[in-house]
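Please go through the protein record below and explain what the tokens say about the fold. Record follows.
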Amino acid sequence: MSRLTYVNGKYHEYKDSLVHIEDRGYQFADGVYEVFGIINKKIVDYEGHINRLFRSLKEIRISSPINKSSYYFHIKKLIKINRIVDGLVYLQITRGVAERDFKFPVKTKPSLVMIAKSISKKTYEDNFNKGIKIKTIKDLRWKRVDIKTINLLAPVLAKQEAAEHSCQEAWLIDEDGFITEGSSSTAWILKKNILYTTPLSNSILNGITRQTLIKGLNKKKLKLIEKKFNMKDIKDADEAFITSATQYVMPVIRVDNLKIGNGKIGKYANLFRKAYMEAVKLS
């Protein structure tokens, strides 16, 4: 079956899905995006993601090209026509097509594209059961990381460096030596049965999976402290995790040369995943 996409109001074959050479997303990274996880044909955390999309649009002053309720319709249709059971839908909005000029164009319609992709549930389960490795890298991103823009060169370079060190993710370190977050995820450590993650600010993205896991932890009365942590804290950690829209809850077994716990996933990994899945009503 051919993959079908959505581009500016029409459905296309994947190979025919094109945008203009002067789209401002292509030339300036002038746009925002969201990733919607799909589990058993259901959209995970839809309200959180769509609300964050509209916040991002507002922050960089782009008008939505369609009304808010239409996004759900098109995402559901892409899931259906592409026969996605488990996977993701990537959604991107740019300021649109205009002659190249740094200033905002006076009259242009924002561009909207959506892509659906199947991801085997077994791939996630295999990674979860093994745990992943992390490489720490200096945080070189701009100062408004709370906006989910398509300006992703710094995370790309971080992810590539991690891959070159046989790691699956990078944790970014600020000028004071604290972990901000992952290149495409939220970072967590567990010490003495207390889970820690960086408090919200302009320096990190307000992860939707992060929000939902916190709700799940609160419901189960598991202790969480939003507090910055550094390499010393990581060295003393009993367990570590990342969360994201496609990794959900993923245990970390090594950070740089530091083995986390005994180097295998700990007892809290399944507990935290269960808390998250119950919070999104997918368990």
Remarks:
- Residues 124-279 form a domain with the D-amino Acid Aminotransferase; Chain A, domain 2 fold (CATH 3.20.10.10).
- The chain has a mean pLDDT of 96.
- The first strand starts at residue 4 and ends at 7.
- The longest helix spans residues 46-59.
